[in-house]
Amino acid sequence: MRPIVTGVHVTDPVRAHAFYTEVLGLSEVVVVPDQELYILGPSTGWEQGCQIVLEPIVDPVTRAYCEQEHREGHSAIMLGVPDAELEYRRLTARGDVTFHEELTKDVLGLHFQIDDTVGNILSIHTA
């Protein structure tokens, strides 16, 4: 068994769509803006990896939970790249990405954390 689609709560689905596609380079799978439906990730089939649904935060309980997770520095999602150091340099060079953790090597391997601008911390790992 393996995940094929997961969701991440976001404060602004339109801004999230821009960040995840333009900054991170994820592909559009399904985009229906008038229904706030954005599914991103591999578009060549589920066998290529998990897709992400950008879930709008619509209730105060979810908002409070997401804000607490962000304050405590917990990653909402872990993303894999072939080379975390190369990705770290690419995102650093942009100058518009906020880092929560610099490039680190530990028991989880080589990784770093960034802010997705819509309420989440993302952990990016060599995978």
List the helices and strands and how they pair.
Layout: E1 5-10, H1 13-23, E2 28-32, E3 37-40, E4 51-56, H2 60-71, E5 75-81, H3 84-94, E6 99-106, E7 109-115, E8 121-126
Parallel strand pairs: 1-4, 5-8
Antiparallel strand pairs: 2-3, 3-4, 6-7, 7-8
Question: What do these coordinates show?
Answer:
The protein has 127 residues and is of the alpha/beta class. The chain has one domain: 2,3-Dihydroxybiphenyl 1,2-Dioxygenase, domain 1 (Roll), CATH 3.10.180.10. Helices cover 27% and strands 39% of the residues. It is built from 3 helices and 8 strands. The protein has a 4-stranded mixed beta sheet with strand order 1-4-3-2, covered by helices on one side. A hairpin with a 4-residue loop joins strand 2 (28-32) and strand 3. The longest helix has 12 residues, at 60-71. The protein starts with a strand and ends with a strand.
Q: Which secondary-structure class do the elements indicate?
A: alpha/beta
Q: Fraction of residues in helices?
A: 25-40%
> What's the shape?
globular
Kindly identify the CATH topology: 2,3-Dihydroxybiphenyl 1,2-Dioxygenase, domain 1
What would the average pLDDT be, to the nearest integer? Answer: 93
Strand content: 35-45%
The secondary-structure element order is: EHEEEHEHEEE
* Rg for CA atoms: 14 Å
In the CATH hierarchy, what is the architecture at level 2? Answer: Roll
| Parts with pLDDT < 50 across at least 5 consecutive residues | none
